Amino acid sequence: MRIEQRGSLQAMQELEGRSDEELEAETRYRAAAQAILGARAAERYDSKEARAHFQRALAAARPQERLHLRRMADASLALAERRPDDLKRATDRLGVEGPTKRQLRGLWLVGLLLPPSSAGVVARVRGILLLCVLIVVVCAVAFGIVTGIATAAGGLSLDARIFYSIILVLIALGVLIYTGRRRQRKAKAQRAEQMAARAR
Asked: Whole-structure pTM over 0.70, yes or no?
């Protein structure tokens, strides 16, 4: 009788669909579960939690799985700490499809506006100031669009234009969040498939 011993990395695709609570309770494939939790924490830009999960994953992994998990940890921590250049190099070493130039530019912008806690006080203050400027610019653009439409339609009061400008900003923000999350889910599913295929 041949007994097939499946490794933790091969179980990742199966574990991807589980909740965080189920992954925390996983004992058979603890390394894979902790690696998934680390990747999820990195997507929330929580580098401290991501690092802790990957440390537990490495402690639970078999020796032949540790190199792959270290590379996964490097890529996830580069994402969590908003380091686009390091993320590109880490995904290349991992052997998975790396982020596009547009995604890397987006990560750079997020790092500029919302730097990690390790970036220092100056970077964080600069991020707050840039975020305030960005909000003002977005609101001004929305107000300009509403004013232009209102002028063509016969005019609106200032209060009405401000109200519709806020509605326009909220709608645009909702669309961006929806499309961003959909792309993120798709990219995560592709990464999981690539890693599972690589682990076979």
From this structure: no
Round to whole Å and give the CA distance between 87 and 197: 21
H-helix or E-strand spanning residue 111: helix 101-113
Structure confidence by residue, pLDDT tens digits, 30-60: 888 999 999 999 888 888 999 999 999 999 8
User: What one-character-per-residue DSSP string does 133-158 give?
Assistant: HHHHHHHHHHHHHHHHHHHHHT---H
Dihedral pair phi/psi, residue 16, rounded to 5°: -55, -40
In the chain, count H helices and then E strands: 9, 0
Q: What is the structure's pLDDT at 115?
A: 78
Distance between CA 80 and CA 107 in Å, rounded? Answer: 10
* Residue 80: DSSP 8-state: H
CA distance 98 to 156: 48
Q: What is the dihedral of CA 9, 14, 20, 22, to 10 degrees?
A: -110
pLDDT for res 5: 39
Q: What angle do CA 96, 100, 109 make, to 5 degrees?
A: 125
